[in-house]
Amino acid sequence: MNKLNPFFFLPLTVLALAWLPLDPSASNLAEVRTGQWPMNLERDIDRRDTSYSLIFRDQRVEDAVVMDTLEFENVGQLKYFGQALDVLKKGHTGDIATFKDYSLKRADKRFDGGVWYILRIKFGITDFQQPEADIMCKTIGRLR
Asked: Which CATH number fits domain 20-141: 3.30.2450, 3.40.50, 2.60.40, 3.40.1350?
């Protein structure tokens, strides 16, 4: 019986590996807000690693479009973000959830009667309303 040469499979292996993407790919999980101040929640896949990002327009810069990113290394960190939103929803104005890389503050506004949140990261800031927080919580809740 003839034995197969192991180098016979080398071209097939190279061909199979060529189909694997080398660049990370991102997929939009939720378009939280559109318009002048967009905000998106994305999943970033780089080979075996999956991370998540909240991308938003920095509200400190009004004369230019500067996009900032709050990165979550894994789904667990993203779920902590969702839990913070849920706790703040049940809290009161002025309550703050502080994490290593960012903070979330509940800031109710009297003139429109709505619940607002202020997200601060190292170099950026944005605010969003309760319906937008609900979109993020619902999206995060569906993740495993």
From this structure: 3.30.2450
